[in-house]
Amino acid sequence: MQTASELSTVGHDLFKILGTNHVEFFVGNARQSAYYYRRAFGFELVAYRGPETGHRETASYCLRQDKINFILTTPLHANHTANEFLVKHGDGVKDIALTVENATEAFAITTSRGAKPVYEPYTIEDEFGSVTLSAVATYGDVIHTFVEKKNYTGIFLPGFKETPKDTLSKSVGLKYVDHIVGNMDWNQMENMVNFYNDVFGFTRFVSFDDKDISTEYSALRSTVVANENKWIKFPINEPAQGMKKSQIEEYVQFNGGAGVQHIAMESEDIISTIIALRNNGVDFIKTPDAYYDDLLSRVGEIDEQIATLRELGILVDRDDKGYMLQLFTRPVEDRPTLFFEIIQRKGGESFGKGNFKALFEAIEREQASRGNL
Ligand code: FE2
Fold it and tell me: Rounded to two decimals, what is the model's pTM?
C-alpha cells in the first residue's frame, strides 16, 4: 500500500478537470425544495426543465449563487428509477458533476481504470450550442457526470429554459464549492481513496488534518483526496470506535449506505453570511460558550472579534498556512443525513479537524461547571 507522501508525489489528473459544474439532488418535491434553498440559502432560480419545456419524466430546478449550481430534480411518475433512490436514501445528492475538457476521454479513461459506467458519452444541443455528457458511478448511489460545455453559451444545459428574474431570493454571499464529503460504511475509506487515486489520479491532500486524526473525539477517520489544481477536494469518512457512537455510522444507517454527508461552500465574509442565514431561519449546530474561552490561545491572532464569533457560533481552526472559519448547519432534512458547511479560508488549508477536540473539551468544561464531571 502507498503511504500518504508517496501518493502525494505520484499523482496528476489523468484527464483535465476544470471544476465542479453542479450538484444534483434527488428530492421528493423539487418545487418546495427550491423555495427553501432560495429563501433560506440565497440561491437564485435561473433555469427550469420539466413538462412545460417538453421534458415529461422529471422536473428540475437550476439554482445558482455565484459559481455554485444546485439542481433539484423530482421524478414525475411512480416507475421512474429516481424513486428507488428516494425510498432508500430520502432527499440527497445524486450527482457531483465535474466540468471537464473532454467528456468522451474522461469516460474512456475512468471506465478503463475500473469505474462503473452510468452513461456512455452523448451530445445534446439547442439554439445555444451543444454539450457532451457522460457519467460513472462512485460511492453508494452517487455518480459523477462529466460535463463538456466549451461549445455552449446557454444558461445551464440544453433542455433547461431560463426563468424570469428571481425576486424571492437574496444572495447570502456564497461563492463556490470548497469541498464535498462522502461518508462510507465501516472500513471502506481506504478503498474509496484508492478508487479516486486509481481512476481519477486524485492524490491524498496532505493537510493539518492528516497528522491529527482525533478519532478519540470524533469517532471517525477521514482522508482528503484532491485533483491536481486542488479545486476538487473530497474528504472521505468512515466510522471509528470512539467515546460515543460514530456520527458516520448513524449517517450510514439512515442513508441506507454510503452517500454525501456535507457540501462546504466558501463565503468571502462568513460573518455577514451567517447573520443572513440565521435571519433566514437556517439552523446551525450549537457551539458551547466555553469553546471561545481558550480560542485565542489555540489559534493566535485573528482579524475577527471573538465576541462576534461567539455570538454567531462560528468556529476557527489554524494550520501552518493560516486559519479558516467554519460553521455547520443541522441536517437539512428529517433523516440525520445531509448538511452544509459555510467556510471562509484565510490561508488555512485544513478541514477543521482541530475543532473536534476543541468542541469536545468545551462541552466537558461546561459539564464540569455544572458539577457533573
Ligand atoms: Fe467540511
Answer: 0.93
